[in-house]
Specification:
The structure holds two protein chains of two kinds.
Chain A: E1 2-11, E2 14-24, E3 29-33, H1 40-48, E4 55-60, E5 63-64, H2 70-75, E6 78-81, H3 93-100, H4 109-122, H5 124-128, H6 139-151, E7 157-161, H7 169-184, E8 188-192, H8 196-202, E9 205-210, E10 213-218, H9 220-225, H10 227-234
Parallel strand pairs in A: 3-8, 3-9, 6-7, 7-8
Antiparallel strand pairs in A: 1-2, 1-4, 4-5, 9-10
Helix pairs in contact in A: 3-6
Chain B: H1 2-31, H2 38-56, H3 59-83, H4 92-113, E1 119-120, E2 128-131, E3 134-137, H5 138-160, H6 162-172, H7 174-179, H8 184-210, E4 212-213, H9 217-232, H10 237-258, H11 260-277, H12 286-297
Antiparallel strand pairs in B: 1-4, 2-3
The chains are: A alpha/beta, B mainly alpha.
Chain lengths: 237, 298
């Protein structure tokens, strides 16, 4: 569904991605693991159109997304939930959700409010806090808000950059339950994670990213069974 | 009674400072930049209005229209030339220095259109109202109402429209806004345009109340607008309004009590005092706090 071929992205002279190729299949949860500095966030930003690659292609369902830029990529159906839960702190929860629907034209106002109702059903905590300023929410609530906001743009594939970072284990469980639920409802998901345990529970396929290159691609079983990789990247289990 | 009269006069002139201050605060609050050429844009609008007056012959409302449109066009011009090419956070200095240069350019163009030291800027011929011993000039009252209407329209734009939502989101966090599909460069253009329109209204109010325009108007309105914005808190729109009103009232009182020579000294002294006691301006340091918190998180 989403195929990435030989993606090269640099920051000035430093090559962060040195030819990354991977595939996220429709209806599956694909997970990218790797140590810090491997280039995971760079990859997500390149896919979302925030960074422009030097070489390589990004294809979503046959449409070429390479180098298109944030708004156009969003229009094609790729939504990114960035690291660190970037909500709009001085706007209410409700307004944040409205913000997620920026790319939906004003003529679809009815559908936008229907979408918001759907979000409130899926995330009841947001409904209780719909009037509150987003900056005053707890970390877990902000993560749910960022998720719901991304869903407002009606994506075909959802990109998640380290959704568990900075959250307590209980909340992390809740978030991953939601991710699993979304996938069961048909959403394709590309997930970057540091929390290997949780990732193992939800993912259908894994990629390991190290120093800008993909070093492993396989299913959870294959990952579990490969001792070398386990010791090198997962610190032994 | 005198105090009341002076305060009333101060509010009238303060409302014009508020509009110019909003022009600066819009650009700073949303784009995190100061348009140093803003005052010169207003002068350009006024100069254009007087220059075209013989051709158009629309009278005072013609002056109003052309000042507003001229200021908006000049503001948009500055945006395209100085601010649009330098959008990264690290380039805000570059953009502002560029706008400083265009300040000179617009001042010069305006001087070409208005070669004399003063030019008549016709105001409305309206009666003066008397409430007991308080006198209120009819045209200043109308101007005050115009300022009120402008501010209310701005409020409606920002809080009740889709565009307003885009603007507030971009002000909160431009990167996230871009992530959600906001075309931030286009939005910057709109902001400068709106700032120009509001500033143009303010310029018309001052100039038609005074009855004339001089080449110093560019620098003068820049100072007043910046002072209003600093008093109220950088980037805060309600702050710019309050700052402008306070500036007007204090200034008028100082002029009435101490004489015109000390008026500016008192005004600048007030700003100095506010900056010592409350460095973020009257409405606080919200923007800086949010930014520093965000930096800490990352």
């Amino acid at each position: 569904m989403l195929s990435v071929n030989n993606l090269v992205t640099s920051y000035g002279l430093i090559k962060a991605l040195k030819g990354v190729s991977l595939e996220a299949r429709e209806g599956e949860v694909t997970c990218i693991l790797g140590p810090n500095g491997a280039g995971k966030t760079t990859l997500m930003f390149t896919l979302a159109g925030i960074l422009s690659p030097d070489a390589g292609t990004v294809n979503l369902l046959g449409h070429n997304l390479t180098g298109l830029g944030g708004p156009k990529v969003l229009n094609q159906g790729l939504a990114l939930v960035p690291e660190n839960r970037l909500v709009f702190p001085d706007m209410s929860v409700h307004e944040n959700l409205l913000a997620g629907a920026f790319t939906q034209s004003k003529a679809m106002a009815v559908e936008v409010s229907e979408d918001i109702d759907k979000m409130y059903t899926r995330f009841p905590i947001l409904k209780t806090r719909y009037d509150q300023l987003a900056g005053t929410l707890s970390g877990g609530e902000q993560q749910m808000l960022t998720l719901a906001r991304a869903l407002m743009s009606r994506p075909t594939i959802l990109l998640l950059d380290e959704p568990s970072v900075g959250l307590s284990p209980l909340i992390v469980n809740e978030i991953f339950d939601i991710i699993k639920q979304l996938n069961e409802d048909g959403m394709s998901i590309l997930l970057v994670e540091q929390n290997v345990n949780k990732a193992l529970q939800v993912a259908d396929y894994f990629y390991l990213l190290d120093q800008g290159k993909v070093t492993f691609g396989g299913t959870p079983d294959q990952l579990q069974n490969d001792d070398i990789i386990k010791r090198a990247y997962l610190g032994g289990e | 009674m005198d105090t009341l009269q002076t305060s009333l006069d101060g509010l009238m002139i303060g409302s014009t400072y508020a509009l110019i201050g909003i022009g600066f605060a819009l650009v700073f609050g949303i784009m995190r930049r100061i348009n140093l050429a803003f005052g010169a844009c207003l002068l350009f609008g006024a100069a254009l209005a007087i220059y075209l007056e013989p051709w158009l012959g629309w009278g005072v409302w013609g002056l109003f229209l052309v000042t507003m449109v001229g200021a908006a066009l000049a503001s948009a011009y500055v945006e395209r030339l100085c601010f649009a090419p330098h959008t990264k956070r690290t380039q805000s200095m570059t953009a502002m220095i560029a706008s400083f240069a265009i300040w000179m350019q617009l001042d010069e163009i305006s001087s070409q259109m208005l070669p004399q030291r003063t030019h008549a800027y016709h105001g409305l011929e309206m009666p003066t109202f008397w409430l007991g011993e308080i006198s209120v000039r009819g045209d200043q009252l109308l101007h005050f109402c115009m300022a009120l209407v402008s501010i209310m329209l701005l409020y409606v734009l920002l809080y009740k429209t889709h565009l307003g939502l885009l603007i507030r989101a971009t002000a909160d966090n431009p990167e996230t806004a871009y992530l959600l599909g906001v075309r931030v460069p286009w939005l910057g253009f709109i902001i400068f345009l709106v700032a120009g329109i509001l500033g143009g209204v303010g310029a018309f109010m001052i100039l038609s109340a005074d009855g004339y325009v001089t080449p110093m108007f560019g620098m003068w309105s820049t100072f007043k607008g910046l002072l209003a914005m600093i008093l109220g808190g950088l980037g805060s729109l309600p702050g710019a309004v309050i700052g402008g009103l306070i500036l007007g009232v204090v200034e008028t009182h100082a002029g009435a009590t101490l004489g015109a020579e000390y008026r500016d000294m008192v005004t600048f002294g007030l700003v100095f005092l506010v900056l010592i006691i409350r460095p973020g301006g009257l409405m606080g340091v919200k923007i800086y706090r949010t930014e520093s918190l965000a930096q800490e998180r990352i």
